[in-house]
Every structure is written in structure tokens, then in C-alpha cells.
């Protein structure tokens, strides 16, 4: 069985690794041009944005290109927000900007604290601007293909990751708690029974989207927790950073689960025991001391260093969250990681 992945970054590499384990031949494709897969190859993607060129147009017309309608609906924030509204799923109040809308009108509709977000291309905090009613802001560069979104005073951030096959069967991982700094995910935690009261709601919300789009594969939905309910922040139609912990903390990783779904293999419910923690290694050089703990599972991406770049991640898993707290306390991380580290230390072992 053959699968090609549009995009050749770290997610594609981890899909390749998962494919080796279960006998699926996975190749990655350069978005700037590559060899077009044959008609027996299933084509999926590790990303939702790519340039329009002769190669990507040929991919989109390939008979085994999956989820064409999904990418059209979710890759752009405007169409994604419209879909959420149509499906009746809670999301932050928003509007589409145009040159005639003033900052005053934005705040009249959305309140004193608002995020401007590029409708396409922005991720990990890029392509966003926060504006306050008390501070006049030049909006001349934010008038086209942009949404304005009410800033939400949330209680916490979680993500639900699930998979759907062609028959409409679905499976899910338990809710993952996430901590971001400057819009970039730093630490994810997966703990038994944590926010269990929201699990069914999260699964229903993600199922609604996957079924509406007839989606096949792994999909991630990031949510705000607000007053005991969930509000959708954004959706990614692919394997996702916040589910990297599944490489250590689940019997089936998100990467294997995606391949199972797209290839029509058994879509078994992953077994999840104990507590898991993922630490993103953002803008840091390689440090062999990360490997001094026998439980540390390092995934290093081999990229050229750049400030703010995802260089790799560390996974930890143990039946006792107290052990994760000890390992995290001992883990040497730069100053910019400290607030996320403190958050994780406070939340490891929590059950509510």
C-alpha cells in the first residue's frame, strides 16, 4: 500500500516513520514541484497551505487526492468560520474585514479587545495583530482577506484529535491540555480523566465537522474552555502538534492512526494509559542532555536553526504524574519556556 504526503516537513517524516512500522510505503512530496504519484497511490497532506503551481494543481486533480473539499473549507479562516456558524458550533464572534470598516466599527461589534488574523497563511502566532479600543491602530495593511475576532477570556485551552475513515467510523484521543506562548504551542499534557466532563462534547463537535466534510484521516480541533463549555478556536485537517504525545502515550500514534484511516486499515481505538507530556523545542540548539532521562523520547527535526522555529520535541510518559513533574523540573530549558513550565507543573496530577 502506497501513500504520498504533500509536504516534506517533520510531520511528513513522522508519517513515514509510522508507515514503516505497519507496512505502508510513505513518500513525501515537495510542494514546489516533485514527481506526480501514480494512480494507485493515496495522496494526503501534512499541511493545509501550499503555493499554486503546476505540480500542486496536478495533485489536486489526482484521482486519489483526499479531502479536496475539506482543504477548500478549512484552509481559509473566513470559510472555516462560516462553516462553524453553519454547523451551529460555538466559536468566537467575528467579522470579515474590508476597506470600509473602521476600527470603531470593529470594536462596536466585537468589543474592546480584538484579534486581526490573516485568513490564509498565518500560523503559530504569525499573521495576527491584537488591537485595543483605547489604542488607535493603522489598519491599512489589514483590510483584505482578514478576519477580526473577539478576544476570548478563556479558562484554558484544549484540543481534541480524532480520525474518521471512508465508512464514517470515528475514534478519538482524550482531550489534550495546551499552553501557548506568543501563539506558539510549548507544552501539551494528556492525563486520565482530566476534563472528562467535556470529552463527549468535544467528540460530538469534531464529529460534526468531519461528517459534514466527509473527511478521511486525522483532524485536530483546538478549543477554548469557557464556563464549562467548549468554543472552537481553529481546526487543522491533518496530524497536529498537540497530539505528538501519542507517540509515547498511546498504543497507536496519531501518525499511524492517520495512515490507518486513509488506507482503509482497521481504525481501532487507541489505548491511552498513564500521563503524557510533550515539550516543543522552539528556537533552541540541540542539547544531548535532553537524553539523560531514560523516559525522554526526543524527536529532532534536523532543521537549520532560526529563532522561534520548531526544532524538535520531547515526549514523556509515566503512570505517575509526579514523575513527569520531577522530569520537567530537571529539564534544562531557556527562560522563554518558564511560564509554560510552571503551568505544566501546576497542572500535572490535576483531575478536575
TrEMBL record:
GO CC, any one term: cytosol
GO molecular function (one): 5-(carboxyamino)imidazole ribonucleotide synthase activity
Superkingdom, natural source: Bacteria
Binding site for ATP: 77, 117, 122-128, 149-152, 157, 180, 233-234
InterPro entries in the cross-refs: ATP-grasp, ATP-grasp_carboxylate-amine, ATP_grasp_subdomain_1, PreATP-grasp_dom_sf, PurK, PurK_C, Rudment_hybrid_motif
SUPFAM superfamilies, alphabetized: Glutathione synthetase ATP-binding domain-like, PreATP-grasp domain, Rudiment single hybrid motif
Example of a GO biological process term: 'de novo' IMP biosynthetic process
Domain ATP-grasp: 81-263
Pathway: Purine metabolism; IMP biosynthesis via de novo pathway; 5-amino-1-(5-phospho-D-ribosyl)imidazole-4-carboxylate from 5-amino-1-(5-phospho-D-ribosyl)imidazole (N5-CAIR route): step 1/2
NCBIfam families per UniProt: PRK06019.1-4
Family of the protein in this entry: Belongs to the PurK/PurT family.
Record text on subunit structure and interactions: Homodimer.
Cited function: Catalyzes the ATP-dependent conversion of 5-aminoimidazole ribonucleotide (AIR) and HCO(3)(-) to N5-carboxyaminoimidazole ribonucleotide (N5-CAIR).
Protein name per Swiss-Prot or TrEMBL: N5-carboxyaminoimidazole ribonucleotide synthase
Organism of derivation: Sapientia aquatica
Encoding gene, per UniProt annotation: purK
